[in-house]
Structure formats: structure tokens, C-alpha cells
Amino acid sequence: MKEITYREACHDAVRSALLADERVFLIGEDVGSYGGCYAVSRGMLSEFGPQRVRDAPLSESAFVGAAIGAAMAGMRPIVELMTVNFSLLALDQIVNNAATLLHMSGGQINVPLVIRMATGAGRQLAAQHSHSWEGWYAHIPGLKIVTPSNVDDARWMLQAALADPDPVLIFEHVNLYNEKGALNESLTAVPLTGAAIRRTGNDLSIITYGACVNKSLRAATELAEKISCEVIDLRSLRPLDEATILASVRKTSRALIVDEGWRSGGIGAEISARLMEQAFYDLDAPVARVCGAEVPIPYPKHLEDAAIPQVASIKKAAETLVGSHE
Amino acid sequence: MTAAAQPTVASGRETALCLLRDMLLCRRFEEKCAEEYSLGRIRGFLHLYIGEEAVAVGAMRALAEGDAVFATYRDHAHALLRGVTAGAIMAEMFGKREGCSHGRGGSMHLFSREHNFFGGNAIVAGALPLAVGYALATKLKNRRDVTACFFGEGAIAEGEFHESLNLAALWQLPVLFICENNLYAMGTVLDRSESQIDLCAKSSSYRIKSTCVDGMDVMAVLNAATEAVQHIRETGAPVFIECQTYRFRAHSMFDPELYRDPEEVKRWKLRDPIPAFLSKAVAAGQLLTTDLDLLEKEVAVVVQEAVAFAEQGTLEPVEDLLRHVYSEREILQSVGGVK
Amino acid sequence: MCQAGEGMDKQVAKDIVLKALYEVAPDLEGVEVKYDADLRRFYDIDSVDYLSFIIKLHKQTGRDIPEADYPKLTSIDRAVAYLAEN
Amino acid sequence: MSDFLMPMLGADMEKGTLVKWFITPGAHVNRGDVVADVETDKGVIAVEIWQSGDIEQILVEPGQEVAVGTVLAKMRSVADKERPSVPGPKIIEQPMPSEAEIPQRVHASPLAKRIAEDLGVDLIKIKGTGPNGAITRADVEGAAKRLKEIPQPTVIAEAVAAPVTTGVASSDQMRRAVAAAMVRSKRDIPHYYLQTDVNVQKLMSWLTEENRRIPVTERILAIAPIMKAIALGLRESPEFNGFYKDGAFQPQSDINLGMIISLRGGGLVAPGITAVDVASVPEIMSRLRDLIERGRRGKLRSSEITSPTVTISSLGEQGVDVVYGVIYPPQVALVGLGGIRERPWADSGMVGAAHQLTITVSADHRVSDGHLGSRLLNRISELLQNPEAL
Question: Would you state the CATH architecture of domain B13-337?
């Protein structure tokens, strides 16, 4: 076991991919000389050269589209979108091309593309740099959406994504880059999809992903004497690992979904709906959600904190859900 | 018979016959499409290329087999000229699984990896970045292949046009940009959407070698494209060609053409690329007037067989609905999770 | 599941009819079967029971049984013949 | 001879108006000629002909609007090729009316409800400790333990049903239970009876029509709309819907209709369908079928036995014309249904045949009187005249 930061895990993942496969190249704004907005690609330009660590102009649509074109031609591009917000400028390419080409061509043209982007709020970056669009992207058939929440996943999900024949979007939460974790050095791969149970429990299933996994684990620890919480890290928002979610909720009879994205129409709503469809008669309480408040993320710290799930709000929701007799 | 996508090898009669046959094939094939549409056997949107054939016929003949082609939703001629069979295209429009996109795409989404033909893209300007990326891959793989990208003049108003030209020039990528300027972006005439209607001025501003040719003259297009392809292969740098052309038919089948004067259409029809080329070639002694009848007969058979092939095609079973969302080796896994 | 229209085997049809009847009227099991008796009068099958009986036959055979055909299925024998013929 | 059809000019085109012909009968046309202008939702479009030949006859005049695929003209074509016919306009299916939602009454989790059913616990009697006071699994399990010590309330219908639910019904036991209930009813309740003949001709035609249209599994019997009409009538006459207990009438907000089922082995059960007034007719039908099937099998739930607020006795199929029922205490009314039969019906001085049904109400004079009772009957009769609105 070695303690590393999430940023180092991301760095190691990209670097080892560049070393392992000639077809892999990194493309994005300021990935070269600058070393990446979140310093994930620091040092790579000098190691791999400008052909394989390619600085792109501020034209998200064109360089994401170009990465799709290169993937169609057999390359394995890794796109870094500086933040999730800028991905909207490339939305047409992601939704209308990357996600549809395989289908429109009747299975002929697959797009082995990986896009990494920094998502989420929590760094006082205000309304245009704090979105959580992963749930949005999970709406789209043809894409795979993954959300590494710890150093092991940050280190190995990229490899699984590159091995996948179809487009994979990796959402790295901005607040995780500096988090340290023990890297399991015996691991050499993780599956791309499938949820992980990060803590087992009997009274309540907390279903979450990304940066909210750590918050939920802390809430669960603090509640441990009163309520036994199971914490599920979804890891992949598309496809969703229904089997793991359902098995847990059937055991605990209660579900709390923690999602930093806005509540209306979010991935939390989707999970809740699937629980209604498939675990209704196993529920001993209504499904509850702790989500992002329905407001553009405000700048001041106290308001930003209030706008997204926190340990306290997760604990409170868990207590309400379990009721008075536990 | 297929329209072979070979570079111009011979001049004179042989080339002339090929060009005429290619243009006729596109024209007659699309007339049949219009007919089938009015009968309800082709559905969805149907955009016809009639009147613009000289552009694709001239440009495609300049390309080699290993080159790649990206086209728009007005893509029947391009697919045909690239060598996709008329039957596979017609079957695609009939929604049959024998179609070149297995029936999933329809008229606007013709694809054939086998022919390096990448659609069939129905978002205006959406394919330009793809072509740039495909050319980037070519360059990274140290190949000399050209990526040709067709688009209408409407695409020039899109940001992706400018972003793509910038990337292609900045990174010196082997892309042949072919602008099919038919004057109207659906119903909006060029000078109502562009402040600068000199399109080469725009592409030149990215320091891309640019030329403008008469898109009703198949030889002019062929010559310009041949020169461009040679330049790209030699330098690895992109080239932009504007082909001034005109579509004789409405934008799509359901278009009463309120935006243009019928007189204007008539005037352009006098420049129909097929008779124009025929009379020139006859005058030059390359063709005989009787060649037209022979080619008409040949083409009629191709079109007829295409319809028969499409009619005999089969429909994909509904149980296969969820196919082709993820690559096949993944399908069992993903269908389980993604409903 | 039997497919419609292929002239079902009589024994199969009889099994289906009896099974449906016993499902809607479990209290008849063990009572002596009278194949030609009127279901409504002899077995005291009311209209709701009868509708359930028809629905069960439909579900078992996949066959549409229009209301107009109800008079053709008034006894066990007749119901068997109906399924076997149609 | 071949046909020139109204062409399909766009995915969203269903019909077009012929604006102008450019040809007359006898004219020769070539493939590709514009022969007519057609007005569509998107404007006027010039229409081409795809065969060469001579126009024989024009069938649609300018100004006429016709569906895609309609023959516009007949022609003798050069090569009289066979064409497949264009499919006609698509028939748009009417969406089924959505089922009325049943309001939530007891706040219990789905899991608690499931377990309550298994354990035979009545949720109404449990205090919940879950979120917002909802009943949870633990509440039900706790109640099930305590239940064993508390004597059951003596609701007579439950007494009737109890042997059935336990599956050890002897007809003697059941007979005794019915006898006790009926004696109590006739001893305590001052009954009065009203009856009216209802013309159900419209209802029967509507049913025939509906049943022809819908799949076998969704077929409806007359009893379902009649129950709905009774429930809607009761909603406007609350004096009949409730219980007489402890010397006072307790009206109930839910309208739960009990249906008397005669068991072949002897005896009766009268399980109820809840909230009939807000249920759709198909829903009532399917619940009734389910109830009767389970009733015959002895698989009723205790809540179904105790819930009815008014009971229905339908004996028409046994050949009876009129039913004067005995009220099930503590209810205060019973609706009797005779057979639906074709009988002479006089209307505006004319006598014709019509399907008729005699409905009676037996009611408790301590709570209501004949005036209110006749209003209820009239309302039910009125509602049945408009079956599609039920």
C-alpha cells in the first residue's frame, strides 16, 4: 500500500497508457506546456513530444470532433476537457457523433474515444465552473459514464476505458485531485462498470458516486452507533449496476441517494425510479435524495457548501429515513 | 456496374465515358429515389443532389481507394461514386438490413467502412472536425492518404467550420475541403447569411490554399481536385475548393420553394452539367451522341436492379432493436445494465 | 402454449378447459364431471366466473374468443370442440 | 391502365388539397412532368408524374382535399408497370383513459403492507414510527405479536368470513354466522325498501361495442359500470355510506362496495372493493374478478371482509327479478340487483322492448328516510344512462 493523491493516480494512468500503446495520444487545452489545468499531464510533453501530447486551441467542438475522427481511424485518443462546463461547447460532437456513429452505421464504425473532464463544485469557482453534468451525459445511449471516486479507480479506470471499443467519459471531481488515498499496489486492472460496496450495513443503503462517496462514508461512520449504513459507490452511471443497487436495497429496505447534481431530472431521479419499478415491495420508507440545490452554484463558501451534499445533510436525511424506532 | 473510385488515369474517351456515366447514374438513381419517396417506400428526409452531380463526380475521380470521404446528409451520389452499390444504398433508404448501414441510418446516414466512406452526417458542419481528426490519425500513422470532406456553403456560418480549418492549417493536416456552394442553406440565400460571400477569402485567412471552380463543369472540378490532391500528398497541407453549383430540386421532398424565383431555377437548368459535358465532349471528339443512349440503358438497369434488391431486402427483427448502441462484444453486458 | 389455428389436439383442449374451470371454480374439484352439462346452470358458474373462464382459455391458447362465440362454449364438451376446431 | 396517386411528399404529410391541374384528359405526359399543384401544410408543391403516357380521366377536382395514396387520375402508361399500392393513412389509436388514482389512506411502506398481508394484520390499527409517522416493517411485526392477546372486534361480516379465510369452513359454521348476523340486522335495524326499474339499453349496447373493441382479457360485464354508478350515487348521498355504531351513524369517506358471493358448498361471503367511486370501470372489473376467484378459493384478506361500507346483492343470474336484501350490520344500506332482461318499455306513448334492471335499496330508517333513498336510486338510474362517462 502506497499513499498517493488522486491527481498522481490520474497522472500515472495517462502516462502508462502513453507508454503502453502507440495509438494513444493526449489532446486538450493546455495539456502540454502548461501541464494540464489540474496538473495531471505535467512533464508529459517533454517525455512524449508534441505529437502525442497535443495542445489544442480553444475550440472544444473541433478538437473533440477531431479526436472522434482519429478514433474512427483506429487511434486511441484521450481528450482532456479542462472542465465539465466547457464540454457543452463540444456537446454536438459528443452526442450527435461519438454516441451515434456506431448505430447510424449499422455497427460498422465504432468510436474508441476517452474523454476525461473535471466535474463538480466545492472550490468556489461560481456558477460557470461548478457543474455536475455526469448525470446529464448518463442520459445518452451510446456513451459510457464513469466516476472514479478513489485512487484505485482513478489509476485503473482509464486503462479499462481505453480498452473499450466505445466512447467512455471519465468524470474526475475537482475536489478529489488533492485527496490522498492508499493505492492498492496488487491491482493491475479494475472493471469499467459495476458498482462497489464501500461499506456494508443493514438499515439503509446510501447510493452515491464521485466526491460524495467519501462524504457518505464519513456520514456512515458517524451514524454507526445508531444506524448501520451500506454505502454503494456506483462507479459507472451508464450502464447503471442495477443488480448491486437492488440487492442492497432489498436487504436494507431503505434507500438514500446522494448526488451532487441538481435534483430535477438527475441521475438520482433515475435510480429512484428504478427502485420503484423493481424494489417497491421491498421498501420500508420512501426513497430519499440529497442532491444539489436548484440554484446556479454561488461563489461564497457558506452558500456553496449549502448548495451541495455535505456530511451533515446526508446524516440528517439518513436519520429521517430510518424514523424514530431504530 | 459500380462507379469506380479510381484516380484519372486516361484522358480522352475513356475518362469522358466514365464521367458521363457517373453523372447519369447519380441523376437517374436519385430520380428513382424521388419516385419511391412519393410512393411512401422511402420515408424520413430525402435530400437530392440533382443538378450538383459534376461536383462529386469530378472530385471523387481525383481520389484514390485509400483516401477517406466524409459527406453531408445529401450523400447518395457520394456513396455511389465511392463504390457503395446502388442496391445497398436503395435498401438503406427502404430501411432494410441489407442496406449499407443495415437500415439503421436511412437516406441521411449512408456509411461504408469498406469504402472508407464515413457518411452521411446530418448536422451541418458536424463532419468537418471528424475529417480533421481522421487526417490527424493519417498523419500520426505516417500515411499519405487524403481525407476529403464535402459540405455545403451553409456550414460556413457554423463555428465548427472555422475551428476545423484552423486546426487543419495549424497542424498541417491532409484534408481536402470541398464546399458545394449551391447558394441556398435550405431556404436562406448566401448573401443573407454571410457578410463575406467570397468563401475562398475565409479559407485563405487560415492560410489554406484555396480555389473556386465552376461546379457545373465536371472537368473543371476534376482538374482542380486532381491538382489539390497532388498538393496535399506532396505537402501534407490542407486545400479548400469552392464549387459553385445549384440544386435543381427543392431542399428536401417537402419544400414548396418559396424562397427562390422559378426563373432562376430555369436559368441554372440551362447549365445542367450532364448535357453541358456531353456537348463539349462530342465537340472535342471524345464522345458520340449515341453514347448517351447506351449509358442511359446501362444505368437504367443498375437503378432497376437496385430497387429490386431493396424490395427483396428484409426488415431487422424488433428483438434486435437495442443492437449497435455499444459494440457487439459488449452488447450482452450493456443491455443488462442499460435499458 | 398452443398456437392458434392449427386444430388443437382434443386431449390437450380438454386439459385446458378443465384446468380453467377448476381455477375459476375450485369448489368443483371432486364433483362428478358432466361433460355435456350447461356450465352456468349445472355448475352454477355466474357471469363473472364465466368471463374469468374465457380469459383463462384465451391466455392458455392465445386465441381471441369474441363475445358472439360465448354460446359455443356453454359446456365442457362444447368448449373442447371449439378449441379443437378453431 | 395505371393510377396517378396523391404523393407522399414528406414524413409528416397525411393529406393534400389539389390546387390546380396542368393537364387535361387526353394529354400526353412524360416521366418527370409537373402535372399538378398540391397544397400541403407546408405550402403549394408542384407534383411530378413518374410514368409516361396518356391521361385518361381526372378523378379529383381542384379544391378537393384527399388522403395520401388517393387516385388523382387514371392514365394509360407507356409501360404499364405494376406498382405497389401506397398504404392508407394510419389510424390513430385512441389512448385508453387513465385509471383513476386511489388516494393513499394508511401511510405504510410497501414492505410493511406486504408483511401485514402475510401476517393478517390490519394496518388501520397500527401507529407508525417511520418517516412522517408511516408504518414500517417493524411496526407491523410488533403489532402482529400484540394482536394475539387482543380480542377481535365483532364485525359480523368478519364472523361470516372467518371460517373461509382459515380454510376450515363447514357450511354449518357459516350458516350459523349468517343466521346470527341476519337476526341482529332484523332485530336492530328498521328496514325500508325502495325499488325502481332502470332502462339499461344504452349500457348494454355500449358494453357490446366496448367488448368487441378490447382484448379478451379486458372484457367488461354489466356489473362493473353498475357498481361504479352506485358508488358515484352514494358519493352524493352520504347518509347510506357508513356504519351505525354506538347509537350513532358514522359516515365513511371511502366508498367500499361489498359483493355477496354465494359459495357452491353453501354459505356467503361479502368481500369489498375499496374506493369504487374513484376506480375506473376496467379496474373495478379486474378487481371484482380477482375478488370472486379468491373468494371461491377461500383466499380473501381480512381487510376485504371488513372494509365494505355498502353491500350489493346481485341475484339476477339465478333468474330473480327483484331483490329485497337484509342489511349487513353495522352498514346502513344494501343495494339489490335483479336480472337484466328485455321487457316492454313505454316512452312518449310508445311501447317498445328495452333491457331493464330492477334496482332496490334496503336502508336503515334510523339514518335515512324514503325521500333520500329515492334520490339515491334516481341518481344511480340517471348515471347509468350515460355509460361512457362512468
Answer: 3-Layer(aba) Sandwich (3.40)
